[in-house]
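pasting for ref
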Amino acid sequence: MNVLPNHVTAAARILVVDDDDDTRSIHAEILSLGGHRVITAADGEEAIAYALHLAFDLIVLDLCLPKVDGIRVIKELRSSSLAHSTPIIVVSAGNEPMHAEALAAGADLVLEKPCLPHELQAAVRSFLDQDRSRQGKKARSQ
């Protein structure tokens, strides 16, 4: 018998990318408290390196990053075999054209900074639940 509520998802590996130490730590803590395994990166170059060598269930990404900006990170990941379908949630204080560019580059969702903890948790849960639902349907059809 399953005693976990329906909205509880199993631990996922999540990459949190933000150049602001406080924001990166807060997002990582919010997701860790939700039971997820979180890896953090402080710039776009580090994010690409992680995402091209480790499989992540989801990526939380700022757009204004040193070394490589978030839009380029999204484009690099969407063109890679390992991360091409990994959900990317952008959390950024950028303007509307920047957010539209992120979505056009392949981001799945844009949340405005500052983002409330429950907004981030709900967005992450939604994408992870969608992914698990797709995996369950695929397993049942085999």
